Amino acid sequence: MSSTAKADILARLRQRTHTSPPPERDFSVLEARQWTPAERIERFRQHLESVQGEVIRTTESELNQAILDRLSRSHVRRLLLGRNSPFQAGLAAAKSGDLELHVYDQPIETWQSELFNEIEAALTTTLGGIAETGSLILWPTPDEPRLMSLVPPMHLAVLRVDQLHDTLLQVVREQRWSQGMPTNALLISGPSKTADIEQTLVFGAHGPRELVVFLVDESGSGA
Amino acid sequence: MTDTHGAVPFHPNVRTALDNPQIRGNFRRAMDGLMDKRRLAFDDWELDKLRTLGSAVRLNALHHLPELLEQLDTRCRANGIQVHWARDGDEACALITDICRRRNARSVIKGKSMVSEEMELNHHLEQADIEALESDLGEYIVQMAEETPSHIIMPAIHKNTREISDLMHDKTGTEPSLDARYLTASARAQLRERFMNADVGISGVNFAVADSGTLCLVENEGNGRLTTTVPPCHIAVTGIEKVVPSLDDVAPLLALLTRSATGQPITTYFNMISGPRQPDEQDGPEEVHLVLVDNGRSEVYQDEELAETLKCIRCGACMNHCPVYTRVGGHAYGTTYPGPIGKILMPQLMGLDQTPDFPSASSLCGACGEVCPVRIPIPQLLVRLRQESVDGDSLHPAHVKGHGVKRGRLEPWIWRGWAWMHRSPALYRLGTALAARFRRLTPSRLGGWTDYRRAPRPAATTLHQAIKARRTHRRPS
Ligand code: SF4
């Protein structure tokens, strides 16, 4: 039945006659949006902070401590890491006794209620950022599954400054997204929010209430 | 709401809405805020150029619609997404119900989807004994109130905090509160359980990308991501017009959509789904389905001018800027899509005979056309539909379903007489002279026109007489 539906719909669409070709797509208005590295950082920070995202600038060598400090400020005791997380060894070595590190290394079905009810924060890597809108790019992987950036009330993400791009269009083109996408890819621009009750903006709807981005600057100009 | 056996009772609805200061206040405040936010969001943009690009992207996609749909179908299948086609809403509902049955699904969690409203999916699922729960906060409120959305972006915009608090108290036992944060937190807590236990998640789609087989979803709350990630089966349902060639095309549309809708540069989440969970992945749905719904769109597609309607990216800006919508609210329209986009789309989907008042429920002020991010000439299409509803253009025969519904028996003769009189100078002069002479005999009440205005009265002298008098008066000097 559905194959005839397909044939019917396509046949009807093909009956349309076109009198003229469609107009050219001129992307210059988007391509013109470019910034210097310093402007990019500033723009990213401003946009993210305007929606209650937090940006902490740090360096590679201070990253672990910055993460631990931020966690202890919110009294986080159960942190979720990805499998083979690049942060695991460093955090395990430097952490104090009351922080538990959990690793997302089994199918969700086996520990769903623990993830939903007990994990307080998750730490993920990112594929980069977009200065124009203050967005993080995440491509969840078997090591860093989708729900890490969604279910725990706090999401911490590490972004390297040299992976900060100007616009989504630039990223899509340079990284050739059209050639193949992962099962799920995301742009994340702040903690979850809603304004469905009389236009009052509330942060922390169904996703995280807090989003903390560690912006890592190799050149050491972190402060 | 929509009475399936008769036309939408627009005028009585309008009367009720205008007499309700609560509704008018709620909409006025919300729309004023949204207009300001949109303006600010485009502050550092060359907006005209961006809108031109948005329009070109949509026109290109529509130009190649059948090929793009086939490509989308092929790419999605290659990615492991199961693709289904439905000629109308009932067929789509049946397909979705079948998928749910096959999985023995009892409970479905839903993300926001206007096309599912269009085909009354929740109702169909209920009849099959499948419980469907809306998870977008606005939709959740509207569902609890057993109402329909009054705005396509903000479904519960017609309710104020007190009304929502009372509703949640009645239905879920939430403590009454005027704190939106508290109410939101309470809804979050109630829905968490439901996300964990849902058998199927159903969502809409904002853009379907043909070359990579990707479904893009725009949202702020995270409910859309939970809907498409937590349940073992995800069904995405979309109108066939939502397909674009590639992710490049998505960039300008996304830039336009969120700024036009709520004045945000981007939503919290932009969710791109290109396949079900792979064997080595720890989460995500094991099955992903895409249901492509026609439901009248391929008919709209046939006419070059009217097909512009299909460029719509459902941002809601035309509503937010519409002086009629702002005063009467979304429910007065009694259809899935209200406001300017509703006024051009619904007559084409349902027939002009079902929506006879829609094309004329506009002052043609032009605001909708000016703000539309993809440059749909809404006022021009309203005029076209007015012509269609009276079969008024003999050179271009009307073909929208239910056309000619407003064609009276007398009116064509009056216009024919009018044209005849205007073609003959002598008759024209005689006519205007008679009108000037007997001006006091013209009626002072002219139906609805004189409810709020005075009846027009011909001038005491005709224009011809006035000019003639002026010439004779000047000649001596
Ligand atoms: S018609 Fe234009 S302004 Fe209205 S919802 Fe569609 S895209 Fe937005």
Fold blueprint:
The complex is a heterodimer of chains A (223) and B (477).
Chain A: H1 2-14, H2 28-31, H3 37-50, E1 54-58, H4 63-73, E2 78-82, H5 88-94, E3 100-104, H6 112-117, E4 121-125, E5 128-130, E6 135-138, E7 154-160, E8 164-165, H7 168-174, E9 184-188, E10 193-194, E11 202-203, E12 210-216
Parallel strand pairs in A: 1-12, 2-3, 2-4, 4-7, 5-8, 7-12
Antiparallel strand pairs in A: 5-6, 6-9, 10-11
Chain B: H1 10-18, H2 21-41, H3 47-63, H4 65-79, E1 82-86, H5 89-102, E2 107-110, H6 114-118, H7 121-127, E3 131-134, H8 137-144, H9 161-172, H10 180-197, E4 200-203, E5 207-209, E6 214-219, H11 223-229, E7 233-239, E8 243-244, H12 247-262, E9 269-273, E10 287-293, H13 297-300, H14 317-320, H15 323-328, H16 339-350, H17 367-371, H18 378-389, H19 411-423, H20 425-437, H21 449-452, H22 463-474
Parallel strand pairs in B: 1-10, 2-3, 2-4, 4-7, 5-8, 7-10
Antiparallel strand pairs in B: 5-6, 6-9
Helix pairs in contact in B: 2-12, 3-12, 16-18
The complex binds iron/sulfur cluster.
Q: What attributes does this structure have?
A:
heterodimer; A: 223 residues; alpha/beta; Rossmann fold; 6-stranded parallel sheet; 7 helices; B: 477 residues; 4-stranded mixed sheet; elongated; binds iron/sulfur cluster; metal-binding (chain B)
Describe the structure.
The complex is a heterodimer of chains A (223) and B (477). The longest helix of chain A has 14 residues, at 37-50. Chain A has helices spanning 2-14, 28-31, 37-50, 63-73, 88-94, 112-117, 168-174; strands at residues 54-58, 78-82, 100-104, 121-125, 128-130, 135-138, 154-160, 164-165, 184-188, 193-194, 202-203, 210-216. Chain A has one domain (31-216): Rossmann fold (3-Layer(aba) Sandwich). Chain A has seven helices and twelve strands. The radius of gyration of chain A is 21 Å and the shape is globular. In chain A, a hairpin with a 4-residue loop joins strand 5 and strand 6 (135-138). By secondary structure, chain A is an alpha/beta fold. Chain B has 477 residues and is an alpha/beta fold. Chain B folds into three domains: 1-21 and 316-406, Orthogonal Bundle (Fumarate Reductase Iron-sulfur Protein, Chain B, domain 2); 47-153 and 193-299, 3-Layer(aba) Sandwich (Rossmann fold), CATH 3.40.50; 411-474, no CATH class. In chain B, 49% of the residues lie in helices and 10% in strands. Chain B is built from 22 helices and ten strands. Chain B has helices spanning 10-18, 21-41, 47-63, 65-79, 89-102, 114-118, 121-127, 137-144, 161-172, 180-197, 223-229, 247-262, 297-300, 317-320, 323-328, 339-350, 367-371, 378-389, 411-423, 425-437, 449-452, 463-474, and strands spanning 82-86, 107-110, 131-134, 200-203, 207-209, 214-219, 233-239, 243-244, 269-273, 287-293. In chain B, the strands form two sheets. A six-stranded parallel beta sheet of chain B has the order 1-10-7-4-2-3, sandwiched between helices. In chain B, a hairpin with a 4-residue loop joins strand 5 (207-209) and strand 6. In chain B, helix 2 (21-41) crosses helix 12 (247-262), helix 3 (47-63) crosses helix 12 and helix 16 runs parallel beside helix 18 (378-389). At the A-B interface, helix 1, helix 2, helix 6, helix 7 and strand 9 of A face helix 2, helix 3, helix 4, strand 1 and helix 8 of B. Strand 9 of chain A pairs antiparallel with strand 9 (269-273) of chain B. Iron/sulfur cluster binds next to helix 14 and helix 16 of chain B.
